[in-house]
Write a structure and sequence with these properties.
The protein is α/β, with parallel strands linked by helices. The chain has helices spanning about 1-15, 45-60, 75-85, 115-125, 125-135, 180-185, 200-205, 215-220, 245-250, 255-290, 300-320, 320-335; strands at about 30-35, 65-70, 90-95, 140-150, 155, 170-175, 190-195, 210-215, 230, 235-245, 290-295.
Length: about 325
């Protein structure tokens, strides 16, 4: 009997040593890589850092997330590919860029889709946004939460943009996708697709005249050093997706998966608040840094919408039910 008990204890010890005992996998330590394009101090980096802190706190320090900001692990396309392969664990990027994986994500890049941030929150946090993230599963991606980059504006080094027609002739950097190329072309400007880490140098070397981004991006990346003019156009709102490698996610215990999901949700709310609280200050800081700021009149804003309407119609037709579904959600919100 004693020999049998001894053999049982030895066998149990061997199981523990090899990590095969139920529950042992969930107690293992793990370190993750998190890639994003904006630098330290930007609200997106602050959100990523908050996520890392929450994951560590919820796991008792077992799970550690190292944040690689400022495009240090490459551009968005390279990051997504590495995530699918499991060599990067988390990526944060404009949701529209995921159209290269699932075409429906193009809807997030349509000009003037959302009237305000509250509309955007309701849509991306609701059934529509969750359905969109669920589509990524077959591409080896888990959609965890939405954060935000915010509303985009146009800068350039050549002239003030006081009216829609002033955009014509400018060579503008755009996110590399068809919608952004088309809306810049619709304004008579010359679109130049570039990965974000290349933008500052291209502006500095005058390879391009300008670019378009939210105020927080212009400030945090010091684009005011190489851009004189800022036009507050709010022509496009960018929800960002916090995504994870499905390969890595599926290898976690259910308990650790929940830690990751809960931390993402909490970090999402934190990041949006930080970004919105900073918005007014960002504009003042850009003025103080020497940027000449112009804002469109109501008539010019209406003209801008009208000029971009054909782009929305063209790409909207190809999106089919994705566009009609999001429009239905927006119509409910606007009643």
């Amino acid at each position: 009997m004693k020999r049998l008990m001894l053999k049982t204890l030895v066998a149990a010890a061997a199981v523990v040593a090899t990590g095969l005992l139920p529950g042992v996998a969930s107690a293992q330590e793990k370190t993750f890589k998190f890639a994003l394009q904006n630098p330290k101090g930007h609200p997106l980096e602050m959100g990523a850092t908050k996520f890392a802190e929450l994951v560590a706190a919820k796991s008792g320090g077992r799970l550690k997330v190292n944040v690689f900001a400022g495009g240090t692990l490459g551009g968005d396309a390279a990051n997504v590919s590495a995530l699918q392969g499991g060599t990067i664990d988390f990526v944060q990027l404009n949701s529209g860029i995921l159209a290269s994986q699932v075409k429906a994500f193009e809807v997030y890049d349509l000009p003037f889709l959302f009237a305000n941030a509250a509309e955007a929150d309701a849509v991306v946090d609701g059934p529509f946004g969750q359905k969109m993230h669920a589509m990524l599963g077959e591409k080896g991606i888990v959609g965890l939460a939405y954060v935000e980059l915010g509303f985009r504006n146009i800068t350039n080094s050549k002239k003030p943009i006081k009216a829609v027609d002033d955009v014509a002739g400018l060579k503008l950097r755009v996110i590399p996708n068809k919608i952004n190329i088309d809306w810049v072309s619709a304004l008579g400007a010359n679109p130049t697709p570039l990965a974000f880490p290349e933008v500052y140098a291209a502006l500095e070397q005058k390879a391009i005249d300008g670019q378009e981004n939210p105020l927080s991006v212009i400030l945090a990346n010091k684009l005011f050093e190489v851009q004189k003019h800022l036009a507050v156009t709010n022509h496009q709102y960018n929800p960002q997706s916090l995504i994870m490698s499905k390969k890595i996610f599926d290898g976690l215990s259910p308990a650790d998966q929940k830690i990751i999901q809960d931390a993402a949700k909490e970090a999402s709310a934190y990041q949006r608040k930080v970004n919105r609280d900073k918005s007014a200050d960002d504009l003042q800081e850009l003025r103080a840094a020497g940027m000449q700021v112009t804002e469109f009149s109501a008539a010019e804003q209406a003209k801008l919408r009208e000029k971009l309407k054909p782009v929305v119609e063209k790409h909207g037709a190809a999106l089919g039910s994705t566009l009609t579904d999001i429009q239905a959600e927006l119509a409910k919100l606007r009643k």
